[in-house]
């Protein structure tokens, strides 16, 4: 399912200059080599005239690196526990952000456009009631190692269709305006996480976890 993060994210920050590309000076030819070089050039020109002409592909690199994209550890897993007791028999609905892949594009003074795929693995434990669950997660844009610039929440409805597990991939597009062409994507960081309670966040921080299919069977309907 494709959803687009449509709101432009206003960014105001100090301009950071990108280093200029290094230039390599040409090699100097010796006088005795010029005649031979001319013959070689003529031979190559003859070969080129007989070969079919193919238009060269245009290749333009980004103006700089892409933003850093990662899952926030404290919010990487969603585990419902009856009475907040960490036991397999108490597990309800679960979820885990299995991974994020991302790429970006920007040139000159264009905004930075980031394409993201977020993979969710979801499950039903013994205390899970029903076949449907709407999870909630967020994506945040930050100035790297600094303040949050924008944050948006998304609903993730899941129908297990009688199964104990499900996998869903969410596609997102994020557009980041820049103050100028000298501002690169490395100034930004994109974080992803579930909306979790304080108890869930503490459970994640301790490193505790249950598999998405924890428990023997879903509770009777």
TrEMBL record:
Compositionally biased spans, kind Low complexity: 25-36
Signal peptide location: 1-22
Assigned keywords, A-Z: Signal
Biased composition (Basic and acidic residues): 37-48
Lineage: superkingdom: Bacteria
Protein name: Tat pathway signal sequence domain protein
Region of interest (Disordered), residue spans: 25-57
């Amino acid at each position: 399912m494709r959803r687009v993060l449509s709101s432009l994210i206003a960014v105001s920050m100090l301009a950071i200059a990108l280093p200029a590309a290094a230039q390599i000076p040409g090699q100097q030819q010796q006088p005795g080599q010029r005649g031979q070089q001319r013959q070689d050039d003529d031979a190559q020109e003859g070969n080129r005239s007989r070969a079919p002409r193919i238009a060269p592909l245009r290749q333009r690199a980004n103006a700089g690196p892409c933003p850093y994209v990662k899952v926030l550890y404290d919010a990487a897993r969603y585990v419902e526990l009856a009475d907040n007791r960490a036991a397999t028999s108490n597990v309800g609905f679960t979820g885990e952000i299995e991974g994020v892949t991302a790429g970006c594009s920007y040139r000159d003074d264009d905004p930075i456009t980031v394409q993201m795929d977020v993979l969710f693995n979801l499950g039903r434990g013994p205390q899970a009631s029903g076949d449907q669950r709407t999870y909630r997660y967020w994506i945040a844009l930050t100035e790297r190692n600094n303040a949050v610039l924008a944050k948006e929440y998304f609903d993730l409805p899941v129908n297990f269709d009688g199964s104990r597990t499900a996998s869903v991939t969410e596609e997102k597009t994020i557009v980041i305006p820049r103050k100028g062409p000298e501002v690169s994507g490395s100034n930004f960081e994109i974080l992803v996480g579930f909306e979790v309670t304080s108890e869930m966040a503490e459970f994640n921080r301790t490193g505790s976890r249950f598999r998405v299919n924890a428990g023997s069977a879903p509770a009777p309907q």
